[in-house]
Amino acid sequence: MNATTAGATAPDQGRIVLLTTSHRVAPGLLSWPAWQALRTADRVLCADGAHPQLPYLREAGIRVDEAAPTAEELVDACAGGRTAVVVATGEGDPALTDGLARLAGSGRVPMPDLELLPASYDLPGARLLDLVQVMDRIRVECPWSSRRTHQGLAKYAIEEAYELVEAIEDGDRDELREELGDVLLQVVFHARIAEEDPDAPFSVDDVAGTIVDKLIHRHPHVFGDATADTPEEVREHWLRTKAAEKQRTSVTEGVPLGQPGLALAAKLASRVRTAGLDVPLPSGDGIGYELLALAARAESEGTDPEAALRAAARAYRDAIRAVEG
């Protein structure tokens, strides 16, 4: 950002550089333009004596004054063509930037060249670090969250998953983003609780590392020498590597019996079909067997019976509302 046009300027008024850094990037990892500005500055200032960058700057031989000058003082410090670099605090030093904006806008004060220089940038996924930090604090300080257990939170994971599915089916983008966050919270919350286990603790990094390893291993056509040109070939790779990992003795292993009945029936039918087994559907009286047959038929036709039933139930709900009002 260059603000020299906002007020009167003169060639000997110098330069003010506002240096911003991301707390999500390790201190000391700064861009080359940032190091150049720091090394060539006549004065480097920082209002926060505990700023995480300060030890690394001083280690590099840069003198940093722990000071919080006013806008007027900073402008005066740049007189004669000097350069002042302000290492911004986590709050961004709003009092200083507002003061500089007022001076520049007044048109009565010869202003130095004003430059905003990002010294480090967030990488994709950086806000996940914020989530982990927030969860750490909530787990320690919140009377409700600090007492939660895996068992006590289990029902919320199911509820949030259903709400996510509803957002997807509704096509509501804002709702989808929010519900994805709620599902992500469940993962981070459970991982934070797991850190406290006295016998087998693990962290969110362990959770992420496990799924990264799994994804790489199950995508040899992406990370290895295997080839796959169609979705069917990708599925074959996935099933083959998964079978080698799990070494299961039955296709029913790993199918959660607590899931909704239609989904359970469809999943079992899918496992049977994928394995090439010839297993006749059990016969019996009652609607349960009829639903089992319908679920198996839907799966064989490529239809999710749960989603199909939800769509029909929504149509039924709309009919009810129409009659009501």
Structural overview:
The protein is α/β, with parallel strands linked by helices and 325 residues long. It is built from 13 helices and five strands. The chain has a five-stranded parallel beta sheet, with helices on both faces. Helix 2 (54-59) links the parallel strand 2 (43-46) and strand 3 (65-66). Helix 6 packs antiparallel against helix 7 and helix 11 (261-275) packs across helix 12 (287-300). It is elongated. 17% of the residues are buried.
Can you tell me the residue ranges where pLDDT is under 50 for at least 5 consecutive residues? 1-10
User: Which band does the percent of strand residues land in?
Assistant: 5-15%
Shape: elongated
Number of strands: 5
Distance between the termini: 57 Å
User: Which sequence of strands runs across the widest sheet?
Assistant: 3-2-4-1-5
Number of helices: 13
Structural class: alpha/beta
Radius of gyration: 30 Å
Succession of helices and strands: EHEHEHEHEHHHHHHHHH
Please outline the major beta sheet.
5 strands, parallel
**Average pLDDT figure:** 90
Share of helix among residues? 40-55%
Key phrases:
325 residues; 5-stranded parallel sheet; elongated; disordered N terminus
Helices and strands, with pairings:
Layout: E1 15-20, H1 32-40, E2 43-46, H2 54-59, E3 65-66, H3 71-77, E4 83-87, H4 94-106, E5 113-118, H5 127-141, H6 150-170, H7 173-194, H8 204-217, H9 220-223, H10 231-246, H11 261-275, H12 287-300, H13 305-324
Parallel strand pairs: 1-4, 1-5, 2-3, 2-4
